[in-house]
Amino acid sequence: MIEAPRHILVVEDEPKIAALLCDYLRAAGYAASSLADGLLALQAIRAQPPAVLLLDVMLPGMDGLTLCREVRAFSGLPILMISARVDELDRLLGLELGADDYLCKPFSPREVVARVRALLRRAEGRLTGAPAPSRVSVGGFAIDDAGQRLYWGEQPLPLPLTPLEFRLMRLMLSQPGRVFARALLLEQLHEDFRDVSDRVIDSHVKNIRRKLGGLQPPQDCISAVYGVGYRLDLS
Length: 235
Description:
Layout: E1 7-11, H1 15-27, E2 31-35, H2 38-47, E3 52-56, H3 64-72, E4 79-83, H4 88-96, E5 101-104, H5 109-124, E6 135-138, E7 141-144, E8 149-152, E9 155-156, H6 163-174, E10 179-181, H7 182-189, H8 199-212, E11 222-225, E12 229-232
Parallel strand pairs: 1-2, 1-3, 3-4, 4-5
Antiparallel strand pairs: 6-7, 7-8, 8-9, 10-12, 11-12
């Protein structure tokens, strides 16, 4: 059976940019469609989630940041935000709301395709070498590599981890008690390392803590080590 191409949804209200992105994505072998309204996009995502969401910040109906937050309330699908805003605070806000990646305009369509590929690799958990077991237990947590899910015992997180958050948590669970420097975490999570602040890691950790806090009982196991990074403490 021939596998259907993965669907990439482009939410962009500038028709020329939307058409250009869809053309490049289709040339790369993906199915691509576009919407220009945030509210319509939310309805479409609820009905049939895409493999990756390309999301502009400035949109009619519902802005991209709000849409990102709404999607994160029910889905862990990979989100790449695209914006003319270049300030680091804007990028951090997008990442805090759950975006996996952030790209500033103007951009190269080829770079967008490369980042989509990277997001899909992370989401699908493709690893080199021998395949890891589908489910691994570490200190009360269960890591489901095949489903890209994290459990506390048999209890799933009330809000799913994004692909990047899953990778970060999995990395820290691989060595409980170790202090991971922010720069090291950034390099490990972004193999296509680029000029972004290591404060991005702080945003992802904040999101993970919030999601772990929704468990019963709440789990507060990620400790900040001043001036260095983070440590996962398991009792």
